[in-house]
Amino acid sequence: MGPDGLTDKTRELDGGPSGRAEVEWVRELVASTINAHLEKAALEIRVDHRSLAAQADAALVRGDLAAAAILSREPTQHVGKNGTALARRGQPSERSDANRRIEETNEETFQKLIAVFEQEGHAMPVPDGHSQAQAEREVGRPSDVLSLPLRRGAGHIEVSRSMATIARGLGLMEAEEATPSRAARSVAELAEEASDEWGVAVQADPRLAQTLQATLALMQWVRERVTAFAEAAQLRPDLNELLRRLRRFKAAAMKFARRLLAVRRAEKLHHMAENAWHDFLANNPEPGTSWTQGDWKQRRGRRLSTLEARAAELGDARARVISEEQTLCEKEASASAAHLEVWSRDMLQRYPLQLDMAAKPDEQRPSPAISAPPAPAHVPKPPRFH
């Protein structure tokens, strides 16, 4: 509205090709302005207005596979002011819980990608949860190479076939091309992998694993059952389903322990940031001869922002190990354990051995001894001395 009446119509930014283009232009302008101020403040962090998929595509084009793998994570959902207010009061919300599950899934996927990048040609100790036999089987598998074409005239890059899922998600290859062309694993290898997964799950929660009598009996003689019923057509699908349920039980059993480890990592990082902040204040309470006022403010601001970020991370990590969260993790582990136990009973009936038939119904089957390691406890932060 102007002095002469109605003027140009307001542009719509909530729909249509022109609206999307305007919104994208505004986002790019805001991001470039923020990055200019960050660069002026001598801060190394940057913001990017593009979607994760677009950033991963650009990283893969320039050959940065690590960045492409990290950026291929699933994005979280916008919580909104109502969900944020509920989270501040300690009350659950659907979107906050969904984001928490997405973050945990992204963390597990990231750890798998790190293992993919490091598995070829690197002498590393066997990590926790893996056996030497399993490591030898992983090394023995063929490491095929994928050739991914870039834009017209830009050539191509070669990546490991383990990156096929990411490449397919970025639209660089068809689903048929992303399917590994290696031979299917034998039922004996599936049984060995199931035994490895069960061993890790037992170490994660030996008390809960001891209650799974059917699973204990099944896994004790799993190799003998596979040998006896190797020609059964349904054996391979049943073993695959057993593996799926074992992995789910293992992940649920290790969930809270991983959160405790995340708290310890956050405490260490916060302690380092706090030391850096106090050391700076003690040694440089005000600008000296070597620094100008601007340089001193920049250095002080960097340490303060790092300390605030570490404090926020520590608070979030501690919020995920409260008693209510531990109860939820235990319920999830119990549910996955019951799910696994049902399938183990079915497999015991479907693939019986003479050992099962000779045992009396009320006789306790011999099971491997499970030693219960001490439950992980929250270690308080040691006091600092000035």
Automatic annotation (TrEMBL):
Outline the segment boundaries, as ranges, of region: Disordered. 1-20, 77-105, 358-386
Mark out the compositionally biased spans (Pro residues).
371-380
Q: Which domain of life is it from?
A: Bacteria
What protein am I looking at? Plasmid mobilization protein
Here the segments flagged for biased composition (Basic and acidic residues) are 1-14, 91-104
